[in-house]
Amino acid sequence: MQNPKLRGLLLGFSSTNARANALFDSLLLLLPNSSSSSLNARFCLPKRRRFCGYAAEQFSDDEYECDFESHKLFIPEEATPYDHHLQGNTFRFKSSLQATMRFCTLSVSEDDVSSKKLETSPIHSKAPQKPIDFTKVDINLLPTVMIIGRPNVGKSALFNRLIRRREALVFNTPDDHVTRDIREGLAKLGDLRFKVLDSAGLETEATSGSILSRTASMTANVLARTQFAIFLIDVRSGLHPLDQEVGKWLRRNAPGINPIVAMNKSESLHNDTNSFAEAAIEAQILGFGEPIAISAETGLGVTALYEALRPMLVDYMVKVLDDNGGEDENSDQNSDSCKVDESKLPLQLAIVGRPNVGKSTLLNTLLQEDRVLVGPEAGLTRDSVRAEFQYQGRTVYLVDTAGWLQRADRQKGPASLSVMQSRRNLMRAHVVALVLNAEEIAQASRSMTHAEVVIARRALEEGRGLVVIVNKMDLLKGKRNSAIYKKVKEAVPHEIQMVIPQVTGIPVVFISALEGRGRAAVMHQVIDTYEKWCLRLSTARLNRWLRKVMSRHSWKDNSAQTKIKYLTQVKARPPTFVAFVSGKAQLSDTYIRFLTKSLKEDFDLGGIPIRIMQRVVPRTAGGSSSKSGQPIDKVVERIPSDKRTVIDY
């Protein structure tokens, strides 16, 4: 090192001779004349501490000034040929972990105070003239940011932090991988909106054909369609050899993406500035620029992540909106003018079932792409994966859930969390697709196990539409299995109706997801069930139907039977009706089942639950019913007439 005073200053920051030499050599690369240069350096430590090293040492003159407290390096006008070199080699130091979690940056300016100072941004210095409101941009035009890294560095925790919900499973399993599929969500970071992808942990040395190898290839395919990436590392363990392998893998598979290196779990080094500085310098070995310190668990450093992402996302949106000719400005007008009914709204479809029945294969078949990981291993899916696609002009949201386990088979850890997440997604869905295994049905001579019956009944109790899908019908092909094939197709609908008698007409579809057969049939039944689920019937039509039904049905004791004044539908999704009856008598359960069955048969409402409530309309004082037909909570008191007089004898 040429200057001992500068060396002492850098030693006060880096605490080791090797680190000081590395910092000094990197700083000299930015200066045009290192032998005759002078430097005024000040290193800003956290608040309530004094400056360390040589606070304001003058080495020869004031030709160069480096002020790390204001994050600027001033170079004279003669150094303008090196501007491009400075733009490509910005250099940052850690200034205050406890207060700001930011790094000091270098920027170029002239000595003349009256002249304009040019500050070089680490990514882009040109800002758009018109501010962009990300909240009004179409979601299909938003940029995509992918979170990558080795296993167990906190990718799912950062994903949950960005989408502001606990959607991805987070569990401390150093020897196992919780996330195995690509999970997509809408990130909300300040005024920024972008699509964020949570990926599985990468291990480049995984054996061919293993789960880790398949997840790496799937991550590479999705990364090729993304625009930006966040490279997450664990600051507590330092730069791991797997981190360097992931960096090489990233350069090989996505050479056009310059990721943002984020050091997660930095709250552990909250009070140790020197250790954090060493970790930050060590992270620069990856070659992707200066890292930022964050904590996905506590939210520390989210502001620094926002400042790093905003210039890139703004520049990307400017290009996209220019290419689309201001499509986002007309999106609000189109959304206001195009008002559709409830049946045309986006459809939420949840694919549920026991493990290893082909749920993930069915999702890939519906999407017509390898979106989730599939394989012969049981329990491969852990996270509930949500995907969006268009089918015949309709937006459909698919949710692939983890396999439901028996209560005795559940274990504490990711398996139990997966079952809880599957239950939540079942309650959010509009239509539930229950997948059965045709081979197991043929071997066990029964259509549904106890776990599958529980899933179906819970879906109907929650008021969701139900479609039963019998998968793996390709295993029953051939002359030997022709009799079993016909028997399964005939027996399954009949047995399902016997097991679930409360809902009639449940549609059953026989498919082979592996061969891609049955995609159109599945979507036809799902959309048909959804439209029935959203059906609304007018009050006049219902009462005309009610008179016909009551006329063709004979009761044993018509005088004792409760009379229905009128019937009306109060809500859809699922269809809910209210029967207004006169008097204090209630409708019997037999009467309600009769009305429910008649509604399903006459209006073709099979496969969805129907709810019928009753409300009593009390009689008025004169014995006649209320003209308004509305229920009356309080009975009207009888008022004595003036004609009635009391005669005392």
UniProtKB/TrEMBL annotation:
GO terms for molecular function: GTP binding. Residues 536-615 form the GTPase Der C-terminal KH-domain-like domain. Keywords: GTP-binding, Nucleotide-binding, Repeat, Ribosome biogenesis. It comes from the Eukaryota. InterPro entries: GTP-bd, GTPase_Der, KH_dom-like, KH_dom-like_a/b, P-loop_NTPase, Small_GTP-bd. The keyword Magnesium does not apply. One of its GO terms (biological process) is ribosome biogenesis. Pfam families: KH_dom-like (PF14714), MMR_HSR1 (PF01926). Residues 144-265, 349-472 form the G domain. Transmembrane segments: none annotated. PANTHER family: GTPASE DER. Belongs to the TRAFAC class TrmE-Era-EngA-EngB-Septin-like GTPase superfamily. EngA (Der) GTPase family. This is GTPase Der. It comes from Corchorus capsularis.
